[in-house]
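Protein chain data
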Amino acid sequence: MSDWIQVTPPRVDLVNGAMEGATRHYVKSYADLEGIFEDVAAFEARRAAAADEVAYEVDEYRSSDNAGDLAFGTSRVYPGLVGREFNMTRGHVHVRGDRAELYYCLSGHGVLLLQEPGGAAQVVELYPGTAAYVPPFALHRSVNVGHVPLVTLFCYPSDSGQDYDVVFGAHGMRLLVVRDPSGGWTVAENPAYVPPT
């Protein structure tokens, strides 16, 4: 078959999640994360002190955007707090909403925050070896509640697309993942949340 896709297998470092042979790598620093944390003053202070500090980064491998193909990669969310909230990804929903996703925790301690279109939310605690399923139409974001990088392997249909504006326009997700008084984590309602239309 002349149109057969030639795949060079990427290699994943199971310690730090770096993917050799990724077709895409992107980094989000605090300079890129305006509008995702509840405490605006705490975010501005963090950004002023460390605008270029990396909050999270992603390596991805995809051979095409065709229906039936898969994209996969690794995400590394670094530890830290902004106000009472833990470091997290921006969060998104798939443009083709009926596409699901799978996360597998390689290292660290985190939470996968899921929210269905009607607003019902669920948290899946992530430890090494945890596989977490993101159902179709679910908004989702990863949150690092530990002291070392949260490293996950993910896989989803290549034609899914990501819509970050839904989460941004709603002022986040309905639940926040925050530090509790004992030093662990808990969830709290997001007072700024506006249900997406």
User: Anything to note?
Assistant: The two ends are 46 Å apart (CA to CA). The first helix runs from residue 40 to 50.
